[in-house]
Task: structure prediction
Amino acid sequence: RVPDLQPAGFELVGGRLLPGESGARAQFMYQNAAGDRVTLYLGAVADQGMQAETAFRYLDDGSAAPTFYWVSGGFGYALTGKLSRTALLELAHRVHGQV
Result:
């Protein structure tokens, strides 16, 4: 089921299945009324050693939009968007609570 971010003001605007090294991946794009977009990318983690649950990790090295990523239930997730760290973390918590 696709995570619902409407309570946080983000509406699903599209999604697609993508190829991955170990199987299909999914990508969903959301947008709020101000035109801010976030993308959720997810897929099964094939490497047994990498399937352990992880805490949210934050990446903002300036080369791309800020991202929170984590592993849960054998799947890897990455939520990316040009939002404040606090706003992006709130959305990551919403996604995590639904998957």
Residues 38 and 52 are 25 Å apart (CA to CA). Residues 85-98 form the longest helix (14 residues).
